[in-house]
Amino acid sequence: MGVKLKDIIEPESINFKYLEGRTIAIDAFNTLYQFLSSIRQRDGTPLMDYDGNITSHLSGILYRNASIVEKGMKPIYIFDGKSSQLKKNTVDKRREIRDESEKKWKEALENHDMAQAKKYASRSAKLSPEIIESSKKLLDLMGIPYIEAAGEGEAQASYMVQKGDAWAVSSQDYDCLLFGANRVVRNLTINSNLGNLEFYELKKVLEKLAISQEDLIKMGILIGTDFNEGLYRVGAKTAFKYAKQGKLDESIAKLEKETNQNIDEVIDLFKNPNVNKDYKIKWNKPKTEEALIFLCDEHGFSEDRVVNTFSKLKKLDSSQKSLEDWF
DNA sequence: CATCATCA
DNA sequence: TGATGATGG
Fold first, then answer.
1. Exposed end of chain A (fewer CB within 10 Å): N or C?
2. A1-209: which CATH architecture?
3. Which Gene3D superfamilies does this one have (predicted)?
4. Which residue is nearest to nucleotide B4 (CA to C1')?
């Protein structure tokens, strides 16, 4: 879910042209959840191969990345590492909702209510180890690099933008702004070019609100993050009001007292996140033959489609120098 | 979600 | 040619 900052920050509207030639650090778990929840049939059944393995995520990765690369962007995927103990409540709550949704999905199917079935099926999506492994394998075959975060994927991606190794983070969550990512892209989907491709520049966000990065972190904490419960009935607007009134610290103190949480730990998690600083990024030549075995032979994809889609990946091969590298 | 076929 | 709905795996 992430921190709900939407009500106080205005996105810039951009198009793909703006992202051409840019390295985009994509939050892998965030993206995989989107694919798994939305790439489904009308009754909510995900795409599957003959053996019953879920393949929705492979479909999403294949087609979206081919398009991203064709448009001249350079994607890197960032996978979550070990999640913080502070996130335990959030993780537990999500699992509960998932399990509940799975039951409701089956109930809806028995009642032949397809709309409800689809709704609850999408909420029941979960990332199994097989899904994560097969996603990494496909990225590899496409020549797209991925990195394992030490902790939170968003923290790692944000660090990489700060270092200049990526130009922006792509994630649906606003948490990256708390982690200090200079640039964040939302809604990076193929059909987002007309209208809803959102762009946030942290520096401009802070300037416009006239607050510091630390203020933003504290506001996020008052609203509630994956790592702490927020103050009751405090959303983005109220938190911003507190910032303007100079009441952030007293509100944090109140939160600590009322909910018995150590907020210093949460602030530290955002300011000094656990990140992997030793990573390398390299785009490789796509392995089309191997991909055909993996996707078509093993997972039932159409050969024509895979061949056609892989032909869009040519730009990625860093051994093939592009024009700008020559000058 | 992304692609494809179809229809105006 | 672009909007719409079914299909993909």
1. C
2. 3-Layer(aba) Sandwich (3.40)
3. 5' to 3' exonuclease, C-terminal subdomain (1.10.150.20), 5'-nuclease (3.40.50.1010)
4. A305
